[in-house]
Amino acid sequence: MLRLGLIIGKLLVTLLTVALLGYGSYHYANSIDLFSLQKVVVAGTSLVANHEVLKISGVKFGSSLFHLPLDSIQQRIVDHPYIQAVQISRQFPRTMFIQVMERDPIAYLNHGDFSCVDQYGVIIPVPRRERTLSLPVLSGFDELENLQPGFSSSDQRLLR
Q1: Closest of 138, 106, 139 to residue 120, by C-alpha
Q2: Mean pLDDT for all residues in the chain
Q3: What is the DSSP string of the chain?
Q4: Tens digits of residue pLDDT in 57-100
């Protein structure tokens, strides 16, 4: 019985030591800026400039990689009308990767204003770049409401 108590006591001391070392190491690494954000890599953009993605992400260089709110950063980026999805990851000790999947305009939409539409019926602004000049023009949508960039239309004529 005494032997079992010694084993449990040693195990508890070992666990407490490991926990304290982990806690201390974490705080030490944060205090010396070992894991401060120094580099952001943005990939997958053609319609949105990398610097624009970085700006709307709201990340601040020098922030701790441990304390970056990845979910809210991701939501801010995906709220951009040209961006369909985004994946964010950290590469320790000082880098964050932002992989963007942009919406691909498949046609111009003439509805009083001029917009584009993607394959899912989401209305997007006409890109500033001239890569979409050869797209077909869809018209006859003057009666549709809420054709604002970023909104999806349920009109089946856009989804065919």
Answers
A1: 106
A2: 84
A3: -HHHHHHHHHHHHHHHHHHHHHHHHHHHHHHTTTTB--EEEEES-SSS-HHHHHHHHT--TT-BGGG--HHHHHHHHHTSTTEEEEEEEEETTTEEEEEEEE--EEEEEEESEEEEEETTSBEEPPPSSGGGTT--EE---TT-----TTPBP--HHHH-
A4: 999 999 988 889 999 999 999 999 999 999 999 998 899 999 99
For the chain, what is the largest distance between any 2 Cα atoms, rounded to a whole number of angstroms? 88
Say how many C-beta atoms besides its own lie within 10 A of residue 59's C-beta. Answer: 19
Q: Residue 76 corresponds to which tokens in the numbers above? A: 């801010």
